[in-house]
Write a structure and sequence with these properties.
The chain has about 270 residues and is of the alpha/beta class. About 35% of the residues lie in helices and about 25% in strands. It has two domains: about 1-125 and about 220-260, Periplasmic binding protein-like II (D-Maltodextrin-Binding Protein, domain 2), CATH 3.40.190; about 125-215, 3-Layer(aba) Sandwich (D-Maltodextrin-Binding Protein, domain 2), CATH 3.40.190.10. Helix 3 (about 30-35) crosses helix 9. The longest helix is centred in the last third of the chain and has 16 residues, at about 230-245. It is elongated, with a radius of gyration of 19 Å.
């Protein structure tokens, strides 16, 4: 209820409009150089997270992350280049390779070694899916000896479960679809993933069911390579708080068919 109330306040603020042009004009040269040293803002887009981004057959990217990247570039007064990645693990692995300037990823202590994150702009759940015939019906039945869990390597839930599991065994696949294939072929007992994406899969496949209780919450944030000057992360942090408060994130979620209630609370 508290999140819904906050959403109403955010949407009310959005009706007042944004003064984006004024903000773009006031951005200092130092901020621009820190965030986009090449003169073009290169935004890493993980289209493996269907809640926030997708890529069509023509290779075109769309989604909440893409909308935020365009808004950030507009305010900075810089051209935008979208850099597509199939999975989140590939984005974080490229943090030190000078191929992206900003990324849209889940906050995680392991990733924070090479990426400086803002507060969350969206909060989503991590859930489990099992075969409909599985005896597993609750989260507390999963971390047990002999249970295997399919995950996309380097994903937020892979990193979280690597730290927290005591008995169950992770089976890592190169991508979300490959992890799903492991479950469908009975090579694992469980699949871990993002709730909204899993719900779509389960809705189209009667052989699967989702464990209703989430096993984690995933804080989606904006990041910049940790080696960048502090001006970059300071600007991004303020930017994220403003687009939450103004209603921009809520409207981007709605425009892309997602639940506006996923907006993260203010920091």
């Amino acid at each position: 209820m508290r999140r819904r109330s906050m959403l109403g306040a955010l949407m009310g603020a959005a009706m007042l409009g944004w003064n984006g042009t004024a903000r773009a004009q006031s951005v200092t040269a130092d901020v621009k150089a820190s965030l986009a040293p090449t003169g073009t803002l290169r935004a890493a887009i993980n289209y493996g997270n269907a809640v926030l981004a997708s890529r069509n057959a023509a290779g075109e990217l769309s989604g909440v992350s893409v909308d935020i990247a365009h808004e950030l570039a507009r305010r900075l007064g810089l051209p935008l280049s979208l850099v597509p990645f199939r999975e989140a693990g590939e984005v974080s692995a490229a943090a030190s390779k000078n191929v992206w300037d900003v990324a849209f990823l889940a906050r995680d202590p392991a990733r924070a070694q090479s990426i400086t994150f803002t507060a969350a702009y969206v909060v989503i759940d991590g859930n489990y899916v099992v075969l409909r015939t599985s005896p597993i019906v609750a989260v507390d039945q999963i971390d047990r000896d002999g249970v295997t869990i399919a995950v996309a390597v380097g994903s937020a839930y892979d990193l979280f479960l690597t730290r927290t599991l005591k008995h169950a065994h992770l089976v890592r696949a190169a991508s979300g679809p490959e992890a799903l294939a492991l479950l469908r072929s009975n090579r694992t007992d469980v699949l871990a993933g993002v709730k909204e994406a899993l719900a779509q899969i389960v809705a189209s496949d009667p052989s699967l069911r989702m464990i209703a209780e989430p096993f984690m919450t995933i804080d989606q944030a904006v990041g910049t390579p940790a080696a960048r000057p502090a001006a970059a992360s300071a600007y991004l942090s303020a930017f994220v708080e403003e687009i939450k408060a103004s209603g921009f994130v809520a409207q981007a979620l709605k425009r892309n068919g997602q639940d506006e209630a996923l907006v993260a609370p203010p920091r």
